[in-house]
Give the backbone structure.
Amino acid sequence: MLLSLSLYAHPEDEFCVPGEDSLDPALCKALAELDSKTGDIALSEMSPILDDAGNERSIASTVGLYLKIGISHILPGGADHILFVLAMFLASTRWRALLLQVSAFTVAHTVTLALAASGAITPSPQIVEPLIALTIGFVAIENLLFKEMTKWRPAVVFGFGLIHGMGFAGFFGELGLPPGQFWSALIGFNVGVEVGQLLVIVAAAAFAATLRRALSNEKGARQYRQFVVLPGSALIGITGFWWAFERLFS
């Protein structure tokens, strides 16, 4: 709000104060009205309630807007969620294992996002944000300890997805929701988050496929784990635990 007003502020306004050097009162009043009108226009243009033409958003327009917001929340804005998705990817030597994890994560964060966004639960960011960072570190450590996805990993990912959903809800709640269009905004945002996550997985899969082709020998699988999975998971784990420390004590 301060930004939009400052963009349209007039330098003469500082002279609209009582004194010998003050501008004419009528001119000062006109400048004040102009500042107010242009400031209101800027705020309206940024509002999720109105579209680019200044009309109230339709359901389709709301879904489209929040779809874009959901994607941008992951790419490039969601570094912690990106690292969690990459940690799931590195743990998966087969597509079925990855699908189980991604499905569990999606269902879980969708549930808590809906509950928190609707006000049914009110998680504290001071608790949720460090927990999100710890989930990143935990799954990365599991990757270092186990060559294959563990039987309990989908359940663990589901539990961690509940926590990540609370983080999504914190961001979602700050956006400002169109009156009467809660569900269209929620669905658009959630689908956008999923699209963002899938783009991360596709990029990781393309990179991994290139490396696997380069290591196409009898030692290829072992080398892939040695030079990609282990160092990648270690870096993700260190980052997650460092973020947890920062968020707890900042």
